[in-house]
Design brief:
By secondary structure, this protein is of the alpha/beta class. Helices cover about 40% and strands about 10% of the residues. The protein has a single domain (about 65-160, about 190-324), classed as Rossmann fold, CATH 3.40.50.
């Protein structure tokens, strides 16, 4: 009987012990979206939002940038941003510094992160929420540019489809973590060795962690770039007809930014060069890579696919020059 109970209880003891380790230690140590995705223990050293303790950002008024959820209120602001997670960094985002430099309040429309920013711009224009004289910055990350600039409606009918992200349960994530231990694999994350220290992290100063999706450019098709060009031109004509200044901002993938310093064999990413260089297209790759070349550390967060507060300010400074 005792032997039977031991055989019965041991799996439960092992399961709840592992789940406790995961819940109370692993979760808190896997900081950043890459840490959470790949179950990488970056530690509380990177637990903060900006993850760059050495950088002293200049003081800027809180009203340099705001999130605006009501479409009717967008008409009150001279500069509006529509974009993905690179637009949703709030007080540590590039919009705050840009607003400070421009001397106005930059309004971010967070709902654009749920859908496709170019489509959201199309909707807001046709619904009459954007007005003459405004500057609208439509942002997308490099790896998703082709997807987000595709399938624009052929008429002025507003879009009704929305993207609702699927949330994983704690149990599903726990089981994925167990599999990652067994297979010695970081799901969804790639790791490269760099030829110099480009991050301040004590354990990973010369390690680059990126989304596997950053290498999706290997599957890009020529017709997708033709469609992107077509949609950009169409939206620009729509903006011109309303006397709105439209800027397309392409946020560089972390992999693309750091690829010149990768030691390991790795494919070249041509996607940024294939995106049209129209006068209203602002590409962040040149200024970010230039800063890395000049020795600036932590342009992107070591544990995250997004640029840090350092990168945000670099982008804002260059975008300000671009807008003048």
């Amino acid at each position: 009987m005792r032997r039977f109970l031991l055989k019965f209880l041991i799996p439960f003891v092992v399961f709840f012990t592992l789940f406790g380790i995961y819940k109370f230690y692993i979760v808190s140590e896997c900081t950043g979206d890459l840490g959470r995705l790949g179950y990488i223990l970056f530690g509380k050293e990177c637990g903060g939002v900006d993850c760059v303790p050495w950088y002293n950002r200049p003081n800027m008024p809180a009203d340099c940038s705001v999130d605006v959820y009501l479409e009717d209120s967008l008409a009150l602001f001279p500069v509006i941003t529509l974009g993905d997670s690179f637009c949703q960094q709030k007080e540590n985002g590039w919009q705050r510094r840009l607003g400070h430099l421009l001397g106005c309040t930059v309004a971010n429309y967070p709902y654009a992160n749920i859908g496709l920013a170019p489509h959201v711009f199309f909707d807001l224009c046709n619904a009459g929420y954007l007005h003459r004289g405004q500057t609208v910055i439509v942002e997308t990350v490099e790896r998703n540019a082709l997807v987000r600039f595709n399938n624009l409606p052929s008429n002025d009918k507003q879009l009704t489809d929305t993207y609702i992200p699927v949330k994983e349960t704690s149990l599903n994530r726990f089981l994925t973590w167990v599999r990652s231990i067994i297979t010695h694999n970081h799901p969804g994350v790639l790791r490269y060795k760099l030829n110099r220290f480009l991050f301040s992290h004590t354990q990973y100063p010369d390690q680059l962690f990126v989304h596997k999706e950053d290498l999706n450019f290997r599957f890009d098709k020529d017709e997708e770039y033709i469609e992107l060009d077509t949609v950009m031109c169409r939206l620009t004509r729509l903006a011109d007809s309303l006397n709105i200044r439209l800027i397309f901002m392409i946020a560089a993938d972390k992999y693309d930014c750091y690829s010149p310093w990768i030691i390991d064999d790795h494919p070249f990413n041509p996607s940024m060069s294939r995106i049209p260089d129209y006068p209203n297209v602002f590409k962040t790759l040149p200024c970010l890579r230039e800063s890395v070349e000049n020795g600036v550390r932590d342009v992107y967060k070591v544990n995250d696919s997004h640029w840090s507060i350092v990168g945000a300010d670099i982008v804002a400074d260059r975008l300000y020059d671009f807008l003048l």
